[in-house]
């Protein structure tokens, strides 16, 4: 009976909040769609406080003070109402600068920059990691903060591309240190600098048995046609002009290929369209396409991979005899591993990857742990009795670690707080005491500073 009363209270609070909100924002379709989601305990407490501040029988007008203002004397414009993040319309973040390469410099460390939303948008086409997606839900406009590693990694890529050296970089660091954000910043920079980019934000999806596969006797591997077709489609949707200018240096020669296979001299975009049309040929098309992009020198090519450690472990796929399949026996992971170990070289560009610690089922294994000389923040240190795989040791050879700092600098943390304050994601007014206390509680860890530091101010 008590649970029924609580549920009735939730529904009543939701309806009342929606009614009040419609009177203020009839055109806020985006916020209303968010408001239809189910309440959590924290959101219900927030709704109770908001509704308690509204006099019974009062009617909101566009010219009246905000019902959700922090103080009774503070007045806001109608388009600047303070609402809980779940229900507010897009806040006024037009003053936030958009991430551009020119703004990434020593003097702008700690500056918050919004991810660009212009077409083509790599974050929309390729997707983003799950951990980053959760953080993006906290704010009305996805952003990142310029950090010292942002400058360092960009310079590393530029120097390596100019020198033509072997560039196989893995971003390492403890959980929540911002590895995925740094990878996203680099991708945005490369897209703006006219690089051809292929980004896999969730490499775990290549080995967790979420896409169809079939055995190929000729190569004795398991093909992943749907996954390969998806990657081809994403490359096409990015719309890089180089795909229409670069031509094939070799024929697409597969005995079982359906009619219409592109020949030497045809444009790369025609090869991509053929792979999308003939899904059964997509794994072979993807292999030849990456070979063409890696060998040409006219446009720099970036192969970016998040959840990189998942490629160095046994997959969740099974053979018809229900035996587990190693990742290097799957077409897409094997292709990525060959570029990671240097058996396939990128002559003008780089392979840039990041380890992820958010999924404990896919932590770094012994081979990648030793190849990158990782520390205890990446899991259990392997010992002499742990079993090693010669195949994975081969695929991990030559990788270079790019270490992320464990803590934010003070001005980097201040940049995050400033955005959260301007975005009205905090119910309490931030102060120096609040900032320093949350920074110390989280030990400067970026993820902990946001989730268990700033967002903890929402608790009553």
Automatic annotation (TrEMBL):
Compartments where found: Mitochondrion
Keyword field contains Disulfide bond: no
Family: Belongs to the mitochondrion-specific ribosomal protein mS29 family.
Domain of life: Eukaryota
GO CC, any one term: mitochondrial small ribosomal subunit
GO terms for MF: structural constituent of ribosome
Organism, as annotated: Serendipita indica (strain DSM 11827) (Root endophyte fungus)
Name of the protein this chain belongs to: Small ribosomal subunit protein mS29
């Amino acid at each position: 009976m008590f649970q029924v009363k609580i549920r009735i209270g939730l529904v009543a609070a939701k309806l009342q909040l929606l009614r009040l909100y419609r009177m203020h924002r009839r055109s806020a379709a985006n916020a209303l769609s968010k408001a239809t989601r189910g309440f959590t305990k924290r959101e219900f407490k927030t709704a109770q406080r908001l509704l308690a501040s509204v006099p019974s029988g009062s009617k909101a007008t566009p010219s009246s003070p905000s019902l959700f203002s922090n103080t009774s004397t503070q007045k806001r414009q109608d388009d600047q109402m303070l609402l809980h993040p779940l229900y507010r319309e897009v806040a006024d973040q037009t003053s936030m600068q958009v991430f551009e390469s020119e703004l990434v410099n020593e003097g702008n460390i700690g500056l918050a920059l919004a991810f660009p939303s212009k077409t083509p948008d790599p974050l929309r086409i390729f997707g983003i990691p799950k951990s980053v997606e959760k953080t993006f839900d906290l704010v009305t406009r996805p952003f990142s903060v310029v950090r010292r590693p942002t400058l360092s990694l960009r310079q590393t890529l530029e120097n390596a591309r100019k020198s033509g050296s072997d560039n196989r970089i893995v971003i390492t660091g403890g959980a929540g240190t911002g590895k995925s954000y740094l990878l996203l910043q680099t991708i945005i920079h490369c897209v703006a600098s006219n690089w051809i980019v292929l980004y896999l934000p969730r490499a775990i999806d290549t080995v967790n048995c979420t896409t169809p596969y079939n055995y190929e006797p000729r190569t004795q591997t398991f093909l992943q046609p749907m996954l390969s077709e998806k990657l081809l489609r994403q490359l096409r949707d990015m719309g890089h002009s180089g795909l229409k200018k670069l031509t094939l240096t070799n024929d697409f020669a597969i005995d079982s290929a359906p009619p219409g296979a592109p020949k030497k001299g045809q444009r790369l975009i025609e090869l991509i369209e053929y792979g999308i049309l003939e899904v059964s040929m997509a794994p072979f098309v993807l292999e030849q396409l990456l070979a063409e992009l890696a060998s040409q020198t006219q446009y720099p090519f970036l192969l970016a991979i998040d959840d990189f450690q998942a490629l160095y472990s046994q997959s969740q796929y099974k053979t018809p005899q229900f035996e587990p399949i190693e990742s290097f026996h799957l077409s897409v992971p094997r292709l990525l591993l060959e570029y990671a170990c240097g058996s396939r070289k990128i002559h003008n560009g780089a392979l840039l990857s990041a380890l992820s610690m958010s999924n404990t089922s896919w932590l770094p294994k012994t081979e990648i742990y030793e190849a990158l000389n990782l520390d205890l923040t990446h899991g259990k240190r392997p010992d002499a009795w742990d079993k090693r795989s010669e195949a994975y040791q081969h695929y991990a050879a030559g990788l270079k670690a790019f270490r992320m700092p464990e803590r934010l600098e003070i001005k980097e943390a201040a940049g995050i707080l400033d955005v959260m304050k301007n975005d009205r994601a905090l119910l309490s007014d931030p102060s120096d005491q609040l900032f320093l206390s949350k920074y110390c509680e989280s030990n400067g860890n970026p993820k902990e500073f946001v989730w268990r530091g700033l967002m903890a101010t929402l608790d009553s």
